[in-house]
Amino acid sequence: MRPDIHPLYPASRITCACGNVIETASTRGSFHVEVCGNCHPFYTGKYKLMDTAGRVERFRKKYEAKGAANASPEAAAEASKKSAKASKAKAKA
Question: With a threshold of 0.70, does the pTM exceed it?
């Protein structure tokens, strides 16, 4: 093997948002992560909502208004009839 082609592999610390610290070696150095094996829902069996920048609230707000408008069964039936008629008209054209 050729000398001096391998990167440095120093000891580093990986710090999780839950407070867990993992000592390892890495070419990247020390860094911070949001989720680790001690706090990840898959490994813990506990559900933890991780909302980034209010995305869940924006989604609920966006579709709350649409859900209220289409809440009645009559409105849903009319919408499906209109879409069926439109698709038949496109097929003929």
Answer: no
